[in-house]
Amino acid sequence: MFPQPLQPLAKRAFPAFLGVPEIPPIRLSTTKKLLVIDIAAFGWNLVSHLPEFRPARAVWPALTCTAQASFRTASTPGAHGIVANGLFFKDLTKVLFWEQSATLCAGPRIWDDFRARGGTVGLMFWQQSMGENVDLVATPAPIHKHSGGMIQSCYTQPAALEQRLNEAIGRPFNLMNYWGPLANHKSSDWIVDAVVATMGLPDLAPDVLFAYIPHLDYDLQRHGPAGEPAKKALDVLLGYLTRLKAACAEHGYDWIFVGDYAIEPVQRGAVFPNRALREAGLFKVRDIRQMAYTDFFTSPAFAVVDHQIAHVFCHDPQAIAAARTCLAAVPGVAAVLDREAQEARGIAHPRSGDLVLVAEDGAWFAYPWFEKKEAPDYASHVDIHNKPGYDPCELFFGWPPGSVSFDTTKIHGAHGNVGKGFEIAWSSSLTFDTPPETFLDLARATQRWMKNAEVK
């Protein structure tokens, strides 16, 4: 049976455990199961004062889809191909963000051998999980109605899992709490309830369960990583971790809690690479009723922006030099990486841009090529699939009512960069002889756990 819906969580940090996680060898109880929680925006800068957490270097670029693909494959973006949250599909001449097919992520999974020996694996709210080679899946999958509006739904495998979770939790998952102006910790409330419920299912509880807690990201992008909103969001998270540790103890799971990126305060503000390319005559638009829509078919160059990186694609190789000269001169651009430099950074892949832009610390890339008066219809709405770039302004209401903001100065937190000051935080019930130093170390440690685990 499912447990009752969760009660309000205690607002306190959980006590430090004895011992520290690390890579080989792993000291483990091979009869236990394992819970891995990916925590959005869980940077070391938030919890360096708490002794139970350790820092690690994030994978670059430090983005949700990229990090999760790197963890499940224990490889770099140059190997698995998820080089950002949004990808440019050259054969379609189209940018698509947040696509969910698992086949987009190339390479063997860290659990392949474990499942081949009879172990079971689940993914809850991880990106690119639809069609994944696992035993249990739960992920948002709303249906957009032809007449307007949306049918809220989750895609689950087995299919009956959605109804079982809704009945156990007492309500369906609300996508409005997951992204947009109403995004808040209620999305994480439901996910944590669902994880606890799933671990208690005698017929479905997987031996290894990967899940995602999203809510820290919202207020840290809105308000930055310091200040009262960030403290409140962290306090809620620590309550979730306390709850999950108790559930792990009850159901026989070890656990790994790990952040995927750290959010830094925005100081310089938004950088607009597509406006620069348009002014240079390299970015072309279609004028539709005074609205400037993209024309990627004829644009010599355009940028697919995603937080603190941007992939720049050039139809004509001769346009690469002009695009590089143009973008290198834009204030807020720290580096313009050609193919050779991308190789050194572990992001060289056919899906990567001919050039990759890196934002200066304290800056981030905004997708608009337009001014507000010529904005495409989708620009004023939450529309993560039509916008050819990530838009954090969707976290704020705009005017008129029902629209989202165009004001990039409202964004006070950004991520994507890595290195000193951008470490992620992690902790675990497993004990290692030497602490993992990177996000990929933690992925390999998880793989080693599965290699050594007994399978019933």
Q: Describe it for me?
A:
- Helix content is 25%, strand content 22%.
- Strand 15 and strand 16 form a beta hairpin.
- The protein has helices at residues 44-47, 64-73, 77-80, 112-116, 161-169, 186-199, 216-223, 228-251, 273-279, 319-328, 339-344, 439-452; strands at 23-27, 33-39, 54-56, 86-89, 94-97, 121-124, 136-140, 143-144, 150-151, 154-157, 208-213, 253-259, 264-265, 269-271, 285-288, 291-294, 301-306, 309-314, 333-337, 355-359, 363-365, 413-414, 424-428, 431-434.
- The two termini are 22 Å apart.
- It has two domains: 23-265 and 418-452, Alkaline Phosphatase, subunit A (3-Layer(aba) Sandwich); 269-411, Gyrase A, domain 2 (2-Layer Sandwich), CATH 3.30.1360.
- It contains twelve helices and 24 strands.
- The longest helix has 24 residues, at 228-251.
- By secondary structure, the protein is α+β, with helices and mostly antiparallel strands.
- The strands form eight sheets. Strands 3-23-12-2-11-6-7-10 form an eight-stranded mixed beta sheet, with helices on both faces. A four-stranded antiparallel beta sheet has the order 17-18-20-19.
Topology:
Blueprint: E1 23-27, E2 33-39, H1 44-47, E3 54-56, H2 64-73, H3 77-80, E4 86-89, E5 94-97, H4 112-116, E6 121-124, E7 136-140, E8 143-144, E9 150-151, E10 154-157, H5 161-169, H6 186-199, E11 208-213, H7 216-223, H8 228-251, E12 253-259, E13 264-265, E14 269-271, H9 273-279, E15 285-288, E16 291-294, E17 301-306, E18 309-314, H10 319-328, E19 333-337, H11 339-344, E20 355-359, E21 363-365, E22 413-414, E23 424-428, E24 431-434, H12 439-452
Parallel strand pairs: 2-11, 2-12, 6-7, 6-11, 14-21
Antiparallel strand pairs: 1-24, 3-23, 4-5, 7-10, 8-9, 12-23, 13-22, 15-16, 17-18, 18-20, 19-20
Helix pairs in contact: 2-12, 6-8, 7-8
